[in-house]
């Protein structure tokens, strides 16, 4: 009895922030320059009254409709978000009811960002292969836009809002369809990507004293998303090549055996630097970022969906998935479609 | 490693800054095109061409292109 990825769907909010608008707000950044340096042209932005749960529900309903899946068969919901609706209750519980999933299903939230999809797959595999659940609905959804200070052009340029829904089901094969996994954590990087205020330790201030301006003119605020991009980049340059090497060794594979590699879509420049450093063949390295930006835990399922749609990933293919970021937290796995 | 070659490698990262503008004594934060993303591009370039890793602090503690060059050189020679 092995877990496998049965279906994926995703949802992007209709409102967007495009490069023309960024250029109007911050004239020093030309449309061409933003596009060349980030690979991003537009970012979906959740509506003021649209939250992670709403987006996750839309993605899950798309999954049921697009793939003809009966919601009554879902017996576990895993919801990955860092922007939950409430401190409590668990957003996954609210989603169970709104999605009309049976009350016999288990449900839990977990808080991870760019590594969240890899961790979600590891949890789903555990639930399925120990017989705890047969059909796990893994939903990733994030509204970083609501954390971002309007004057912080650095992060506004990178992040988009999105949700993805993945069904992990049980197959009778004895071959691993998800895994092995290599996971890792370095909490020393906690302050490099952070929303500091609003939890128990540091209450939300909601006043101008939370704001400051850094040496390159970006606004920073402990009430908002703070990103030390250069430090995160250094973390990825050091840890991701090792992560890729470790997963290949654990899986006893080489890039010859891998049909496609999908990294967390952080920004195009970072992806290209990592690809070159690790020496991954360009034709096996899938990038899908232009029209959605960095959607945190949803970048990998969105890219996987698009790779399948484009025919770049087919049934039977072995695909390497690699997530890394906020925490710091990172993980890699191999999935077979 | 030569400063002149390093400057050419730095220049390549810029799109809107004409060749010749960047010199060793240039205070890079004063360049119109400088942004936090440029720091990433320089870190990536240094990793690719010189096979050493500049940290965010290395860039933060530098004022001029020469300062960055000196940091790269000390790492290369370490």
Percent strand of chain B: under 5%
Q: What pair of chains forms the biggest interface? A: A-B, 26 and 22 residues
The averaged pLDDT of chain A comes out at 94
Tell me the series of helices and strands of chain A, N- to C-terminal.
Answer: EEHHEHEHEHEHEEEEEEHEHHEE
CATH architecture of the largest domain in chain A: 3-Layer(aba) Sandwich
Strand content of chain A: 15-25%
Instruction: Please compute the radius of gyration of chain B using only Cα atoms.
Output: 11 Å
Rounded to the nearest angstrom, the distance between the terminal CA atoms of chain B is: 14 Å
Which CATH class of the largest domain in chain A applies here? Alpha Beta
Number of strands of chain A: 15
CATH topology of the largest domain in chain A: Peroxisomal Thiolase, Chain A, domain 1
CATH architecture of chain B: Orthogonal Bundle
Counting structural domains of chain B, the number is 1
Number of domains of chain A: 2
CATH superfamily of the largest domain in chain A: Thiolase/Chalcone synthase
The CATH homologous superfamily of chain B is termed: ACP-like
Helix content of chain A: 25-40%
List keywords for this structure.
heterodimer, A: 337 residues, alpha+beta, Peroxisomal Thiolase, Chain A, domain 1, 2 domains, five-stranded mixed beta sheet, four-stranded mixed beta sheet, 9 helices, 15 strands, 31% helix, B: 78 residues, mainly alpha, Non-ribosomal Peptide Synthetase Peptidyl Carrier Protein, Chain A, 4 helices, 0% strand
Short summary of the structure?
The complex is a heterodimer of chains A (337) and B (78). With 337 residues, chain A is of the alpha+beta class. Chain A contains nine helices and 15 strands.
Describe the structure.
The complex is a heterodimer of chains A (337) and B (78). Chain A has 337 residues and is of the alpha+beta class. Chain A folds into two domains: 2-171, Peroxisomal Thiolase, Chain A, domain 1 (3-Layer(aba) Sandwich), CATH 3.40.47.10; 178-336, Peroxisomal Thiolase, Chain A, domain 1 (3-Layer(aba) Sandwich), CATH 3.40.47. Helices cover 31% and strands 25% of the residues of chain A. Chain A contains nine helices and 15 strands. In chain A, the strands form five sheets. A five-stranded mixed beta sheet of chain A has the order 1-7-6-4-5, sandwiched between helices. In chain A, β14 (318-325) and β15 (329-336) form a beta hairpin. In chain A, α7 crosses α8. Chain A starts with a strand and ends with a strand. Chain B has 78 residues and is mainly α. Chain B has a single domain (3-14, 22-77), classed as Non-ribosomal Peptide Synthetase Peptidyl Carrier Protein, Chain A (Orthogonal Bundle), CATH 1.10.1200. In chain B, 54% of the residues lie in helices and 0% in strands. Chain B contains four helices and no strands. The radius of gyration of chain B is 11 Å and the shape is globular. The model of chain B has no long low-confidence stretch (mean pLDDT 91). Classes of the chains: A alpha+beta (337), B mainly alpha (78). The A-B interface holds A 28-30, 32-33, 36-38, 154, 214-216, 218, 228-231, 233-234, 237-238, 269-270, 273, 276-277 and B 15-16, 29, 32-37, 39-41, 43-44, 47-48, 53-56, 59-60.
